[in-house]
């Protein structure tokens, strides 16, 4: 499991890297908020450990940025002990909060607890919307009433786009996230790719591709999978 540790204290970073590497975790480090976001995009960590008091962007800003595209657990490790700081971090999207100084035993226990949550939530679900059924484990898509379903063939790229959206139901997935994850960071401006594949997915999966109810556009930002919503007439791609 890959853990991103963001802290501007080099001694803490060194100690945590040594300790967690010995526990067979893969460690990525950052010394500022901006660096943490950049490395999160590049490395896609399974868990975040964030200090709140970092230069450039503080931990709350990082949490807000990460929560725009990732559901990975966030463990705040901070010297701020006030209740208001803890509430702010948890409200922003953090999953747990440990105050400095901390014991390694407690920190490892918190990581194990969050790891168990990852294992539980990573079970590949079957997603149903409209008359479509998507089995993320079997990587299969069917349409039609029970007993009358037909297989829908998706290209590998169409599948990648669909899976990213379905794994974040009801949440915006930005164009940058989709482009970086599927085509790489060098294609973050190639939005034409997305329009093409989203249009193809709508033709294959929406009952009315011109008025999509499930694969929705967030104008100027990205796309969102909505399991159940009213149609939006004339929604642009």
From TrEMBL:
It comes from Cellulomonas shaoxiangyii. Gene3D superfamilies: 3.40.50.2300, 6.10.250.690, Winged helix-like DNA-binding domain superfamily/Winged helix DNA-binding domain. GO terms for biological process: regulation of DNA-templated transcription. Residues 124-227 form the OmpR/PhoB-type domain. GO terms for molecular function: phosphorelay response regulator activity; transcription cis-regulatory region binding. The modification 4-aspartylphosphate is found at residue 51. Keywords: DNA-binding, Phosphoprotein. Residues 124-227 bind DNA. This is Response regulator. PROSITE patterns: OMPR_PHOB (PS51755), RESPONSE_REGULATORY (PS50110). It comes from the Bacteria. InterPro entries: CheY-like_superfamily, OmpR/PhoB-type_DNA-bd, Sig_transdc_resp-reg_C-effctor, Sig_transdc_resp-reg_receiver, WalR-like, WH-like_DNA-bd_sf. One of its GO terms (cellular component) is cytosol. Residues 2-115 form the Response regulatory domain.
């Amino acid at each position: 499991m890959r853990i991103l540790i963001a802290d501007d204290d080099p001694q803490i970073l060194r100690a945590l890297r040594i300790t967690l590497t010995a526990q067979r975790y893969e460690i990525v480090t950052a010394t500022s908020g901006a660096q943490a976001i950049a490395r999160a995009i590049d490395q896609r960590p399974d868990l975040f450990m964030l200090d709140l008091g970092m230069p450039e962007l503080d931990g709350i800003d990082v949490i807000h940025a990460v929560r725009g595209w990732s559901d990975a657990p966030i463990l705040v490790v901070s010297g701020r002990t006030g209740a208001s700081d803890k509430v702010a971090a948890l409200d922003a999207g953090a999953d747990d909060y440990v105050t400095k100084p901390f014991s390694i035993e407690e920190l490892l226990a918190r990581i194990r607890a969050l790891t168990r949550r990852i294992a539980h939530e990573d079970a590949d679900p079957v997603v149903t919307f409209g008359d479509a059924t998507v089995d993320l484990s079997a990587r299969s898509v069917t349409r039609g009433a029970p007993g009358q379903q037909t297989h829908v063939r998706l290209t590998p790229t169409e599948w990648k786009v669909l899976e990213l959206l379905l794994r974040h139901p009801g949440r915006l997935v930005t164009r940058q996230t989709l482009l970086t994850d599927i085509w790489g960071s060098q294609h973050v401006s190639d939005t034409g790719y997305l329009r093409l594949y989203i249009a193809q997915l709508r033709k294959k999966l929406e009952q009315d591709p011109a008025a999509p109810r499930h694969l929705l556009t967030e104008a100027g930002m990205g796309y969102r999978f909505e399991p159940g919503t009213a149609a939006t007439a004339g929604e642009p791609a």
